[in-house]
Amino acid sequence: MTGNIAFLGYGLAAIGPGIGVGLIFAAYINGVARQPEARGMLQTIAFTGFALTEALAILGLVFAFIFRT
């Protein structure tokens, strides 16, 4: 068997941010449906959470390439 386990690790690590993004936007949609007047504030919070979650996924991808020696 050839290859590197780092890419398998990244594949498994990508599940977490995928679930996180889904939960963030599910909560955003739920919050806007309950209080439409709070859309602006909730949108800012949702995009900030999305950016932080995706940063973790990108960091995992970078580490997979760094440690593939």
UniProtKB/TrEMBL annotation:
Membrane topology listed for this record: Multi-pass membrane protein
SUPFAM superfamilies: F1F0 ATP synthase subunit C
Superkingdom assignment: Bacteria
DNA damage in keyword set: no
Alphabetized UniProt keyword annotations: ATP synthesis, Cell membrane, CF(0), Hydrogen ion transport, Ion transport, Lipid-binding, Membrane, Transmembrane, Transmembrane helix, Transport
Residue stretches making up the V-ATPase proteolipid subunit C-like domain: 6-67
Segments traversing the membrane: 7-29, 41-67
Subcellular location: Cell membrane
Site, as annotated: Reversibly protonated during proton transport: E54
Family: Belongs to the ATPase C chain family.
Function of the protein: Key component of the F(0) channel; it plays a direct role in translocation across the membrane. A homomeric c-ring of between 10-14 subunits forms the central stalk rotor element with the F(1) delta and epsilon subunits.
NCBIfam families per the UniProt record, alphabetical: ATP_synt_c
PANTHER family found in the cross-reference section: ATP SYNTHASE LIPID-BINDING PROTEIN, MITOCHONDRIAL (PTHR10031), ATPASE PROTEIN 9 (PTHR10031:SF0)
Protein name per Swiss-Prot or TrEMBL: ATP synthase subunit c
Species of provenance: Terracoccus luteus
Source organism phylogeny: Bacteria, Bacillati, Actinomycetota, Actinomycetes, Micrococcales
Gene: atpE
